[in-house]
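Title: Request for sanity check on Alpha-glucoside ABC transporter substrate-binding protein prediction

Description:
We are preparing a figure and want to confirm that the structure record we downloaded matches what your pipeline produces today. Could someone re-run it with the sequence below and paste the raw C-alpha cells into this thread? We only need the C-alpha cell string, no images.
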Amino acid sequence: MRSNTRRNRAIAVVGGLSLALTLAACTAPPDDEDEPTAGGDDGGSEVAEGCEAFADYGDLSGTTVTVYTSITSPEDQPHIDSYKPFEECTGATIEYEGSREFEAQLPVRIQAGDPPDIAYIPQPGLLATIVRDNPDAVVPVGEMAEANVDEYYDPAWKGYGSIDGTYYATPLGANVKSFVWYSPSMFADAGYEIPETWDELIALSDQIVADGGKPWCAGIESGEATGWPATDWLEDVMLRTAGPDVYDQWVSHEIPFNDPAVADALETVGSILKNPDYVNAGIGDVRSIASTPFTDAGFPILDGQCWMHRQASFYAANWESAREGVTVAEDGDVFAFYFPSMDPDTRPVLGGGEFVAAFSDRPEVAAFQAYLVSPEWNNAKIEATGPGWVSANSGQDTSLYASPIDKLSAELLADPNTVFRFDASDLMPGEVGAASFWTEMTNWIASDKSNQEVLDAIEASWP
C-alpha cells in the first residue's frame, strides 16, 4: 500500500484504539442510511469511519480467503479475532484452519491441487522446500504487501522470505533470542549495573566471581532436540564477533562451518559456558549443562544462586510456570537485558519468526496478505493475544503490549539501529541445523569434545 502518509495518519485512528472500538467503528450503519464500502474502486463510495487504512484493499464483499496454519485451539482464537477489522472494513470472510499435521499435510494439499489461499510457514527452510518442490504453486508477494514490508520491516525479513531471487513470503510473528535474564533486585542489592558492552558483561561476570558467586546458569537438554540452546549461543556470538555479513556467509555455506571466524566465535562462547568459575550456578559443573532441561536452567536465579541466564524472549512463560507469583518486569522478580554486542555502535539481534505464503493470486488474497504486514493487523493481534506474541513491524503501537518483555522485544526489533538475523540452525539444511549442529554442541559440553573436532564434524555433515 503506497499511500504511506495517509496510512500513517490512519494508524493514529485505528492502531491506537482497542480492538473493540475498531470493530465498532467499522460496523455497517443502520438500514435507513447509505451503506459505505471499504473500497475506493467505484470513485463514488465513502469509507466507513475508522476504516480509512483499509480503503486501498477495495470492496471485497462476498469473497472468502482460507488460512491454513499449525496453530490450533486455544492459541488459534487470537488469530481469528485479529482478522475481524479486515472482515468488517472490506466485507471479506476469512476461514481459519489449524492442524497439528500442518507440515506433513501442506505439501500433500499442494500436490493434490487443493492448497489453502494463505499458509503460515514456521521456518524459511520449509518455505524453500515448498517453493522448489512445487515451483508454480506459491504466488510471489503482491505490490501492496511488499510495500508494507519495505516500509515497516528490517530488510533481512524480505531476504528470508525470498527464494532464488523471488519474493514469496511476508513476515508474521517474531521472537528475540538476544536476551540475558537476571534478577533486578539482586543486581540492585549488589550494586551491579546492566552491562552495555561485551567487555562490561565479562567484567561483571568476573566481579560476581570475585564476590564469591557464579555468574551463569545454563541448560541445553530438550529431548530429541537437545543441544539447540547451545547453537543459539554460538549464533548470537558469531553475529557479534564476525558481523552480519560473515554470519550470512556461514549460514549459506559460502564459508565452511570450521572457518576461523566460526572457531573464534566458539572459543568466545567457551570462555563462558566451559569456564568452571562461571557455570553452572545452582545446578552443577560444566557438564551438567548438557543434562539440565533448558526449561529449568534459569530457575536458580529465583533462589539467588545464579545471576544471569541467556535465553530468548519466550522464556518468560517458563518463569511464570516455575513458581506462583513470579513477576516478569523491570522491577519484578526477573527481567532481561539485551545481550551486549562487541561494538557499542552496533546492535545485532538474533531471532526467529513465521512467514505468510499465498497460493492464489486473487485480489482478496493479495489484500489479506498485505493486511498481515500492516500496523493495523499487528495492533489488532497484540490486543487479541495478550502476553507471549511479538511483532517486528516498526509501525506497531508498542504501548499495546501487556507484557514488559514483549514490549522490550518489539522495541528492539523495531529499532532502526537493530541488525536482525534469523536463527542460523533454522536456515541451514536439516542434516546440519536440526542434526549435527545440535549433536556436536551437546558433545562439546557433555564430553568436552574439542572446538576443532566439533566444527570439523559439523562441516563433514554438510550435504
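Thanks, this matches our download. Confidence is low (pLDDT under 50) at residues 1-44.
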